[in-house]
Design a protein that fits this description.
The chain is mainly β and 244 residues long. Helices cover 0% and strands 48% of the residues. The strands form six sheets. Strands 1, 8, 9, 11, 12, 13 and 14 form a seven-stranded mixed beta sheet that branches. Strands 16, 18, 19, 21, 23 and 24 form a six-stranded mixed beta sheet that branches. This is Lipoprotein.
Length: 244
């Protein structure tokens, strides 16, 4: 595929969590039909090897087209939610075609990171982050998150169905890790968090960030940034969602 390369940023833990739909009873013509085994409901899968960006990488400044080849999404249904983590623009929603392909027009530029998540009803794939680079698409590489000894659980996505959830920040590094005051990417939804100030996670210990959805605002998803200031600058990114 011609176009701009991407680096794929994965977290440190398995990323294929999704909600599994419940079985439904069926009534036909007023008669109760004996329950039959239902086919398994698969969590959405995004094949980043079939995703690319079109356009001249040297001219990429404004709108880019994120394209998924046929088979990029399985099962082939629902939408793809694309969020530019380095801007405050609203997420872009792209329909998934019957062959599993999609095209999303996104305002982005070189070195920015796009977060992609497949949404099928209340089920979602784990987010995948793609960094736009100036290299050929064939040179796409896996980019590990910085400080592998610093992990968070959940790693990249929190579904706030119950209204509140704890995020565990675990430091197995040999030195303390300092994290700046958490912040939301847009702040247009009912999401909140505590602590609201900067904090330190001592070496070998853990801290808890509680996220909740009991405030004002109409948007059903946002992004929470945990920005590491020491010993090595970097960030952890959590998508926060509410059921539709």
């Amino acid at each position: 595929m011609a176009g701009m390369a991407m680096r794929t940023t994965y977290g440190h833990r398995g990323r294929r969590g999704a909600r599994v739909a419940t079985l439904l009873g069926a009534l036909v013509g007023g008669c109760v039909v004996s329950p039959q085994p239902s086919p398994p409901v698969h969590e959405p899968i995004l094949d980043t090897g079939l995703v690319g960006v079109s356009g001249d990488p040297q001219v990429l400044r404004q709108q880019v087209f994120l394209k998924g080849e046929p088979g990029a999404v399985e099962p082939a249904e629902g939408v793809v939610v694309v969020t530019n983590l380095d801007s405050a623009d609203a997420p872009v929603i792209a329909e998934i075609s019957r062959d599993g392909s999609f095209v999303a027009a996104v305002d982005a530029s070189t070195d920015q990171v796009l977060r992609i998540q497949v949404k099928q009803g209340e089920r979602r794939s784990e987010p995948v982050d793609l960094q736009l680079t100036g290299e050929p698409i064939s040179a796409a590489q896996t980019m590990l998150a910085h400080l592998p000894c610093l992990t968070i659980e959940p790693a990249s996505w929190v579904s706030l169905e119950a209204g509140e959830s704890d995020v565990v920040v675990r430091n197995t590094c040999a030195e303390d890790v300092s994290i700046g005051a958490p912040r939301l990417r847009r702040g247009a939804g009912p999401f909140g968090f505590s602590p609201a100030e900067a904090f330190v996670v001592p070496a070998g210990e853990s801290a808890v960030v509680t996220v909740h959805a009991d405030g004002e605002g109409v948007e059903r998803e946002d992004v929470l940034f945990l920005e590491v200031t020491a010993p090595e600058p970097g960030r952890r990114v959590l998508t926060l969602t509410l059921p539709d």
